[in-house]
Amino acid sequence: MNVQYIQSTQNKKFKEWRKLLKRRGREKAGFYLIEGPHLVEEALKDPDVVQELLLNGDQDVVFELYDDIAVYQLETDLFKELSTTENPQGMIAVCKMKSIEAPKEVKRVLLLDAVQDPGNLGTLIRTADAAGLDAVYLGDGCVDQYNEKTLRSAQGSHFHLPVIRLNLFEAIVQLKAQAIPIYGTSLTGTELSSDLRQSRFGLLVGNEANGVHPDLLDQTDFSIKIPIYGQAESLNVAVAAGILMYYLRGL
Question: Is 0.85 surpassed by the pTM of this model?
Answer without folding.
Answer: yes
